[in-house]
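If you are new to this repository, start here. Below is one unmodified record pulled from the training split, so you can see the exact layout before writing a loader.
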Amino acid sequence: MHFEIESDREISVLGVGILTPGEPHRLTDEERQMFKIYYGQDVIGANFAPYVKVTAVVESAEGGE
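And here is the target side for that same chain:
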């Protein structure tokens, strides 16, 4: 599982960088740690503006259905 963050406008997120409008950004473990340092919480529980969304992406196991 990994997390993606996406915005419908260009914004800068401390610990992550500049988000390009409409392009999901896959968060690395390091970016999540930096986000926690700057904001004091994980990206999962963060209170983003309505135009920013965070999505959990679950990858299926190989060979499994």
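Two things worth knowing about this chain: The chain has a mean pLDDT of 91. The chain has one helix and five strands.
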